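Summary of Year 1 activities. Much of the first year was spent building the evaluation harness for sequence design. The harness presents a backbone, in tokenized form, and records the residue chosen at every position. We chose the following record to illustrate the format because it has been used consistently in internal testing since the harness was completed.
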């Protein structure tokens, strides 16, 4: 197998035209250059240089190998630069899936931090609810999934690491005076995504009633507009109200009802540098 160091010596000799000049460029001694060339001749079984008076010149085999060495070294150097750029986050991409109220609150600040600290790193965003975000993560279509879960949410599958970001309180949203859930046991209810709907049914059951669901929507703007129009009441997380608050609704925190927001990654640490950079930006944005 050809030695890359010796190929680099041969390339320098071919470009500089002498052992002395090659040694100077490579910061080697002249005997070291001669030694590498001799070893390269032994490895290839070909005579690569010949003496010409007080200088040297490449043989036909030497010129052939020197030309190939230049190509090989160029590819090696380019690959090393690309890898250094990736590890040093001077280039590359990182992909994030997140639910709407995260995208409407802390994710933009995290994106700004990431762009400021690593301007060569491109962030790709996807809006989706937690179940699909986790499917994308398992399939390798995203690097980080910002998801939420409740205490009664089923555990995630093995292989997924959940990094806690924040706890988000649940809020009763209505047009009347703030009260508890039981005050609206006979009202129409507006439900959200599947995971939120399951949580709504659970907390109402713990309060002793089954909510009468009149409408379901993932759109926090539409849901609040329906509440403001008197079409029902709903439960929304704090992030949703931070992202958008209708002026004609009132809110009251529901004690003991909290969703937990996590950054999900696949596998155990250490994670790729771009993933770690994104995780750091998410934490710093909270």
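For this record, the design step produced the sequence shown next.
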């Amino acid at each position: 197998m050809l030695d890359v160091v010796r190929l680099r010596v041969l390339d320098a000799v071919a470009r500089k035209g002498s052992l002395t000049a090659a040694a100077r460029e490579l910061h080697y001694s002249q005997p070291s250059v001669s030694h590498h060339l001799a070893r390269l001749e032994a490895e290839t079984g070909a005579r690569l240089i010949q003496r010409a008076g007080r200088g040297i010149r490449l043989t036909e085999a030497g010129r052939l190998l020197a030309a190939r060495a230049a190509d090989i070294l160029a590819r090696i150097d380019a690959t090393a630069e690309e890898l250094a750029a990736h590890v040093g986050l001077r280039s590359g991409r990182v992909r994030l899936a997140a639910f709407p109220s995260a995208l409407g609150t802390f994710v933009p600040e995290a994106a700004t931090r990431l762009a400021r600290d690593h301007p060569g790193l491109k962030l790709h965003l996807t809006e989706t609810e937690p179940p699909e975000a986790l499917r994308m993560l398992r399939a390798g279509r995203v690097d980080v999934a910002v998801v939420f879960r409740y205490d009664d949410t089923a555990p995630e599958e093995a292989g997924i690491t959940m990094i806690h970001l924040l706890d988000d309180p649940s809020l009763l949203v209505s047009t009347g005076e703030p009260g508890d859930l039981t005050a609206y046991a006979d009202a129409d209810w507006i439900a959200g995504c599947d995971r939120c709907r399951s949580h709504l049914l659970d907390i109402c059951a713990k309060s002793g009633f089954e909510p009468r669901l009149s409408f379901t929507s993932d759109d926090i703007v539409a849901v609040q507009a329906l509440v403001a129009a008197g079409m029902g009441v709903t439960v929304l997380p704090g992030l949703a109200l931070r992202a958008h608050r209708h002026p004609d609704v009132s809110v009251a925190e529901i004690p003991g009802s909290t969703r937990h927001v996590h950054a999900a990654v696949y596998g155990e640490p250490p994670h790729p540098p771009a993933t770690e950079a994104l995780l750091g930006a998410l934490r710093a944005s909270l």
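The mean pLDDT is 91. Quantitative recovery figures across the full test set are reported in Table 2.
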